[in-house]
Write a structure and sequence with these properties.
The structure holds two protein chains of two kinds. By secondary structure, chain A is an alpha/beta fold. Helix content of chain A is 26%, strand content 25%. Chain B is α+β, with helices and mostly antiparallel strands. Chain B is 33% helix and 20% strand. Chain B has 15 helices and 22 strands. In chain B, α9 crosses α12 and α13 packs antiparallel against α14. Chain B is globular, with a radius of gyration of 24 Å. The two termini of chain B are 33 Å apart. The chains are: A alpha/beta, B alpha+beta.
Chain lengths: 266, 543
């Protein structure tokens, strides 16, 4: 069984600031890391591999990015992936969600045509669009389950516990399918010394547009309809008002009701 | 025989009344009580004056004024010391150096081909770290002035850092010089002493010494300082320094550099008003934590790691069985506090270390580590490895988590027994005595049935034994054992204090180390430079 985990290298988001004058991201001195949601997706893949040895699961990680994105793929190899591909080519430069999902779809279809399951993070912490997973599934014409928390295998089907606004649902789908993962452990795994050594002996292939015959007109800046008009930091939230109900809950409830009526919420 | 003398400079004092100051013991006790103690939490600090000078002229004015009435002076940096060096127990005046915290210059020493930075003593290690990382320097502070040193520094593709890294990075540079501070990375870089190029010091007579390393050496153990009122002759102590890491007592060598007399002198000789620090090229590091199912295997690994070529750790840190137990317990209660994967079930002890990282060399380096582990019959699988900055931060946090847990336990016990405190040792021995000393610690503490945990800088044979008394009786028992440890450390060619210093709380251990004669020699140096005992009396030895 083959699981493809799509990953992205991102700047460590909490350390990125926006230059108030130019509106661009200040990335100087900020480290590049494996997107945390992608790491959750990898964690799910590794857990399945350990849980279902009878499936001989092979984990293949795939990314599109500049040559330095190799480092994020090496990290996936340290953390349990078996093989990694990096789609890297100047022709990909400027790709938006649509062009990126097309490139990744092409990568999956041509490099791992016999895939069974695709796992992704729900979104990347730099762009936060959450578009790419859904678009990959659409390009491939396979079922998708979003906001996954936990995945289990059952014959040729998967069962996914997914987050909803009210709680969670358990959804099942036939394989092949794509699941985007929205949460994971808040304590990151650490590889052992042996795993760090092994990672550098596992296959990591850099693939160009030419190598797998991707349609050039569908990737890169020209194939990207999204236009970023402006980047800005969201304005700080105004301080709310706290009604302290510890001494007199009834009076507090009354005050709250008045507030809601006054602002036409009820 | 003629001895080359260093001349003091006469600096025009500023107007005393214009200096920012707080007067009155009551006001200081009520509104400025943080200035009355340091991280040692010693009680009894009090003062009539609290000064916040912003430049050297103001420091001179303060000293001249305080001298008139023989008012004792305590010099304060960021008060992060843990032996009470900055606690004004004699009252009088406090000079807080916190406002003299500017970066004053940056230069390149052509003779040794190294960068250095000139700072005020109040700047903290953290501030310095950020400034260097971002190369956030004004273009007009180049040394020599008018040169393009800062511009060249910024254009230099390499990054630089100041390698002294005690646990408390909020420490001020002046304090770290007075304490000859060090930390985990002193295994590779040595203590503060190795990183000081030049200092300016205001002496008790109000005159200033400007000392550049390499310019004033003792001849046959004698220094001569020419002041406006005559020459001062200083005879350096005749005791031999331990070969192990040491922060206890005055530094001495017959042909020593004058700057080394001031570094680590715990504020006894004057107020440091400016310092130049060497900078080192920064390299990324790879960190490892390896676990062992037997304590002796860990000691064996340490000596192999120290001897091996091809790996140069910046630090080698130890966690004993009880430290690991505390971490495991904490991990069950609050996994995020420890912020690490689950500690391996059969781990008894652990060693944390690092080495220079590059993608080209990492496999080779780790293969060496693997071999060493195999030589100690230990598994490479019981390990964690990481090289991203965020992972290195986690390793650091993991090392600091143990003392935090211990401090919390003691804080809890304090509620029942107000006078209780932990007993943390700070002793070092020479390489060949490491294992004997570790066994001595373990055996003694087990026999006495005391609760304890051991961790720290095993690369320098310098671990912190922490005794956690459960009641006042155990506290007394612990104190007696502490003394035994000090005697044993000295017997093994080590130091009673490898990095914390002596301050006001370890006088008796310094006596064990250097004897009355040694202490008397130190006193004579003090009396030559500060006959009135104006500065920091009761640091290092009683007045």
């Amino acid at each position: 069984m083959k699981i493809v985990v799509c990953i992205k290298q991102v700047p460590e988001a909490d350390k990125v600031a926006i230059d108030p004058e130019t509106g661009t991201l200040i990335r100087e001195g900020v480290a590049s890391i494996l997107n945390p949601f992608c790491e959750y997706a990898l964690d799910v893949a590794v857990k399945l591999k350990e849980q279902f040895p009878e499936h001989n699961i092979e984990i293949i990680t795939l990314s599109m990015g500049p040559p330095q994105a190799k480092q994020a793929l090496i990290r996936t190899l340290e953390l349990g992936a078996d093989k990694a591909y990096l789609l890297s080519d100047r022709k990909f430069a400027g790709s938006d969600c649509l062009a990126t999902s097309y490139a990744l779809k092409e990568g999956i279809a041509k490099l791992v045509p016999d895939f069974d399951l695709i796992l992704t993070g729900k979104q990347a912490i730099d762009g936060d669009t959450a578009q790419v997973p859904a678009e990959i599934a659409e390009h491939l014409g396979i079922p998708q389950i979003t906001y996954g928390l936990d995945v289990t295998l059952n014959n040729r089907r998967i069962e996914v516990k997914k987050e909803t606004e009210e709680g969670y649902q358990v959804v099942s789908a036939r394989l092949p399918a794509l699941v985007s993962i929205s949460r994971g452990s808040n304590i990151r795994r650490l590889p052992s010394i042996q795993e760090v050594i092994n990672a550098r002996r596992k296959p990591l292939e850099v693939v160009s547009v030419e190598d797998i015959k991707i349609d050039e007109t569908k990737v890169g800046l020209k194939a990207s309809p999204t236009q970023v008009v402006k980047i800005f930091a969201p304005p700080p939230k105004a301080a709310g008002e706290i009604i302290d109900g510890r001494d007199d809950p009834k009076a507090a409830a009354k005050k709250l009701l008045e507030f809601l009526i006054e602002h036409k919420f009820v | 025989m003629t001895v080359q003398a260093i001349k003091t400079e006469i600096v025009q004092p500023s107007d005393f009344e214009s200096i920012r100051m707080v007067k009155g013991a009551d006001t200081i006790a009520k509104q400025y009580s943080v200035y009355l103690t340091d991280e040692s939490r010693i009680d009894g600090g009090h003062a009539e004056w609290l000064f916040f000078p912003t430049n050297e002229q103001e420091v001179v004015a303060i000293i001249q004024k305080m001298r008139e009435n023989n008012t004792p002076i305590t010099i304060e940096g960021a008060r992060t010391g843990i032996v009470g060096g900055a606690v004004p127990i004699d009252g009088g005046a406090i000079i807080s150096m916190e406002r003299m915290n500017e970066v004053k210059g940056l230069g390149f020493d052509e003779t040794v081909q190294r960068w250095y930075i000139r700072v005020g003593p109040g700047i903290t290690l953290n501030e310095l770290k950020t400034i260097l990382k971002q190369k956030k320097l004004d273009d007009n502070i180049s040394i020599p002035s008018g040169s393009d040193a800062v511009k060249r520094f910024k254009e230099d593709k390499k990054s630089y850092f100041y390698p002294v890294a005690p646990t408390e990075m909020s420490a001020a540079i002046g304090g770290t010089i007075a304490a000859n501070a060090s930390g985990a990375t002193s295994f590779k870089y040595g203590p503060t002493r190795n990183w000081i190029r030049r200092i300016r010091v205001v002496l008790s007579n109000g005159e200033v010494l400007d000392i550049t390393r390499g310019q004033y050496k003792a001849q046959d153990g004698i220094f001569r300082i020419s002041t406006s009122t005559g020459d001062i002759e200083i005879k350096v102590p005749s005791y031999t320094m331990p070969k192990a890491k040491n922060a206890a007592g005055l530094y001495t060598k017959p042909d020593m550099d004058l700057i080394d007399l001031f570094i680590g002198s715990e504020g006894l000789f004057g107020v440091i008003t400016e310092a130049e620090l060497w900078l080192e090229e920064y390299h990324p590091a790879c960190g490892c934590v390896v676990f062992f199912d037997d304590a002796d295997k860990a000691f064996n690994f340490v000596s192999l790691l120290r001897e091996t070529d091809g790996i140069e750790p910046e630090f080698i840190e130890y966690f004993d069985e009880n430290a690991i137990k505390l971490l495991k317990q904490k991990q069950e209660e609050d996994p995020k506090f420890v912020n690490m994967p689950k500690i391996f079930d059969n781990a008894i002890s652990a060693i944390s270390f690092d080495f220079l990282y590059s993608e080209e060399t990492i496999v080779k380096s780790l293969e060496i580590v693997k071999q060493l582990l195999e030589q100690c019959n230990s598994s490479v699988d019981m390990s964690w490895c990481g090289y991203e900055d965020r992972e290195l931060e986690r390793f650091k946090h993991f090392r600091h988590a143990v003392p935090e847990i211990v401090n919390n336990i003691i804080a809890e016990r304090k509620k029942k027994y107000h006078g209780i405190h932990k007993l943390g040792t700070d002793m070092s021995v020479t390489n060949e005595h490491l294992v004997d000393m570790m066994h001595f610690y373990q055996q003694t503490l087990r026999e006495e049935g005391l609760e304890y945990a051991i961790w720290g800088h095993i690369g320098d044979n310098h671990v912190h034994v922490n005794i956690l008394p459960r009641n006042m009786e155990e506290l007394e028992k612990g104190k007696a054992i502490y003394k035994k440890f000090a005697q044993k450390a000295v017997e093994y060619g080590g130091s009673v204090s490898a990095e914390h210093g002596i301050g006001k709380i370890k006088h008796e251990y310094l006596l064990i180390m250097f004897g009355k004669e040694g202490i008397d020699e130190m006193k004579r140096v003090k009396e030559a430079l500060d006959p009135q005992y104006l500065f920091c009396a009761n640091n290092m030895f009683p007045k």
